[in-house]
Amino acid sequence: MDTMGIFNNGAITVMEKPTTILLVRHGETDFNRDGIIQGHIDIPLNDRGRDKTVLLRGALDGRPVDALYASPLKRALETARILSDGMTHTVKELPGLMEFNFGKWEGRVFTDIIAEYPEEWRTWKERWREAEIPGGETFAAFTSRVLAALNEILEAHAGKTVLVATHGGPIRAILAHCICGDCVEGYWKFQIDNSSLTELEFHPYGAVLKKFNYRPVVT
């Protein structure tokens, strides 16, 4: 999907020159396929995930990229390395780009969590902004580290184009902050598919959403 709009939010670094961030959600894993919560569990892409990422790389051919960043989790790093094939840049790992930490819920499907931890599930569902899953993190801490990582990239590459391989959660957090004016409810409004591209262009007056959840059409 291609779209265009101007959004202002003072909490993100103000850019003197247009800076383009190409946000890519990692390719599919077996956990994605089976509906299992991954969080910080470190598993690689499956064959479908690799194939879809190769398709996305083809759609990016000829697009100048000045730097590449990735979450250090295998599925994001593998995605970045597939996308960087033919480029001269080294993929830089940035821990702030990691997925939300679901703690002891990781490795399970939501139906099992609801059955095994009904009280914890109810608390998180009602107070997800501040509730902390045992062994995990709060939404506030998650958003803070993701936006800090984004600012680090923006400050290091002003006026450039940067490819970032990350996860659905961080992409939604960035969109909610830049587009919805830091409205945390906006986090749930965005569907981010595996091997998809979301493009943001940062200007002195705010951010422009150039592409959202773009996936190449197979012909």
Q: Helical element count?
A: 7
Largest sheet: 7 strands, mixed
Q: Given the helix and strand composition, which structural class is it?
A: alpha/beta
Care to count the β-strands?
A: 7
* Name of the CATH class: Alpha Beta
Question: Which secondary structure elements does this structure contain, and how are they paired or packed?
Answer:
Elements: E1 6-7, E2 19-25, H1 30-34, H2 47-60, E3 67-70, H3 74-83, E4 91-93, H4 110-116, H5 118-126, H6 139-156, E5 161-166, H7 168-179, E6 197-203, E7 206-214
Parallel strand pairs: 2-5, 3-4, 3-5
Antiparallel strand pairs: 1-7, 2-6, 6-7
Helix pairs in contact: 2-3, 4-5, 6-7
Characterize the structure shown.
- This protein is of the alpha/beta class and 219 residues long.
- The chain has a single domain, classed as Phosphoglycerate mutase-like (Rossmann fold), CATH 3.40.50.
- Helices cover 34% and strands 17% of the residues.
- It is built from seven helices and seven strands, in the order ββααβαβαααβαββ.
- It has helices at 30-34, 47-60, 74-83, 110-116, 118-126, 139-156, 168-179, and strands at 6-7, 19-25, 67-70, 91-93, 161-166, 197-203, 206-214.
- It has a seven-stranded mixed sheet.
- 35% of the residues are buried.
Task: Give a nutshell description of this structure.
It contains seven helices and seven strands; from the N terminus they run ββααβαβαααβαββ. It has 219 residues and is of the alpha/beta class.
